[in-house]
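Handout, page 2. Input:
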Amino acid sequence: MSSREVAIKKTETAVLGEQKKAIIQKQAVSAEEISRKGISNVEQGLTKVTGITTVEGRGLFVRGLEERYNYLLINGLGSPSNNPFQKIIALKQFPTDVVGKLNIYKTFNSNLYGDFAGATFDIETLTIDKPFSKIEFSVGVNTLSTFRDNFKVAEGADGMNGYLGLNSRDRRLPGEIRNSRPNNYRFSANESLNSFKDSWNVDNVKALPNTSIGFTTAQKVKMGSGNLGILFSLNQGTKFEYKEGANNQFRSQGKDSFIDNMNFLNRKQYNYETESSALLGLGYKNKGTVVNLNAIYLQNTNNIIEDNFGYKDNLVQNKKSGFFRTNQLDVSRFLDLQLTASQKITDRHQVKAGASYVINNYSQPDRKIIDGNRTDPKTGAILPENMIQMRYGGNNLIRQYLDVDSRFYGSAFAEYQLSLGEKGDRKDYPIQIAVGYNGFSDFRKTSYRFLFGRTSNPSLAPFVVNIDTPQDTFDTSIRNGDLFYQEGSDVSQFFSSFYQIINGGYANVNFKPTDSWDVLLGARYENDMTLIRYSDQGAAKKNNLEKNKDFFLPSLAIKKALNNKHNLRFAFSKTVTRPILIETMPIKYISPDNVNIVGNQNIKNSENYNFDVKWEYYPSTKEMFAVNLFAKRIDNAIERSLTASADATGSTITFFNAKKAELYGVELEGILSLNRISEALKNFTLGANATIMHSNVERSQEQLNMEQPTWFKNTGETLHKRGLQGAAPYTINADLKYEIKNRNNLAQTFSLVYNVSGSKIYATGGNRYR
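Output:
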């Protein structure tokens, strides 16, 4: 393929043409569109696609379905999440400087992984068509945080170590216990003073504008009969973000009581986030051979200071005086090494293969929690700002250490393609057959440990401390023998292991009997072997929970070109949905507001049946209108649930399978050149899309036991119907582009982008007394 052809593939017009011709219902965001809309990361790029929205902290929603229903490929290879709370990588960490195209598959084909219900995203890294070098710098303003005084960050986090994400080294588990099992180790006074390299203090700084800087260079050299391309990119960004709002939870005290607040809190959260990425790519191409080697490194750190004011655990007496602070650092590091190759043997035969190895780690080192009160212990009056009353003991000082480490992740694919029949005057052979394999192995270990601030003097009177600078007070108390640190981790539950091996084989036949008909029939066999090793509380031995499941996943796609401007499409498939790691990890993730997360190791995969019917109209090479009707049935749909806690206080988020969920909806999409309205608007292009959806859930017996009040048995009442947890009834995306070219044919582009989605159910459930 010539460099001119490669370059054309990156334009919006070419991507639209590719979408028109493809048998699979695939949408794409081109490098040109990424550039003209000022898109700086992959997540922003994907939200320009019909039916895709983002929800902060919960990833991408496709057709109203939560992130657990999506899957990510990078250059066709499987990719694990670098965060146990998310199904796929937080795609805002992936800069678009090195992206050639974002492919979005909203219908299934057998060569994709069977983990599919919302969409599969495939990030194609940049193809080198001509040498270039560029340096980019951007500045962003957040009206709530930029130039805000007294923006709180962990002590030293805003320095160079924090900027590069190296401040996690000082927050590691202390050496005295780092390589040993929990045994209630008590730190001596000297160890309590010197074994912890980070501080309880926070700095108050002026929040600067959000910035990013990037350098990318691509070079091409002649090598034998082909060309060798070299791509190198570095990107570094920082972001300050301030959020404030209610952090409330509700519960009932019994079947005859009304529902009231369990937590009544106002939350102030300060986020200082850094993102680092590097890509080294080598690509060799000659007439029939393509070989690519990529090394992709992503690092994200989020320094979080969160203050909560009010009461928790229904302690209404603390409504005006309650307070607790969380000082947290989230760190994820992701290194993906990839080798892919394709070889065209003859015009009828082609093979391609690839493999990747991923080093992937996530941690929350030394997550510090202080619990206090804002009243003066002597007068009862509210203390001045930043001053709190506290005492040692209980859960008033906690240090948490969560690590999710990848022991091994490997992914591979191989495919053989055969073309049959005669082309004649047509571009493609009438029959194309592909058989192949893809799969991955994902082994992880989770460690979760706790250290508590204890006291040898339980009669010590409450004291007042500045919440921003408590370290000196704590150090003095340690020297006086009033405070020490002691591990309180559960020796049986402090670690667990997760092993998953997915092997898939597939075959598909693409039959094109005429220029107007295109039929793709596929079949996939997928074996899912999962082993979870965990312990029940107090148990001496680990449980080995083994799951081995075989899936047969058929798919059918039909395209009928009515003429050169109109297409009709139909697609059917069966797929599965696997849970997010936190949903199946058998640990109890502790939050200071006592709304804790407990994974359900017995959660089942969902099985999905997907139907799509679509009409497309292409009035010109730059315009398109489409209407897509879709429906899904999801057996054993996974839902986040809020249940009563087994503890004396608080509540628990856990995960259950519904019996089934049904959803159906319509997607509307259009790209319009406004010169159709007036020649004065010839430089304007309007793009808009909307998804409208309805869903209904049939609860499982487990969910009925949790949600249904006990008195329903006597009254005959039943629970109301509800939609699928996380599903949005509508999403709307729109953008207006203005483009003008100067005498040198250089384009200047301005874009106005708008996104909105409907309300969603965050969690289902109750405590049987609703």
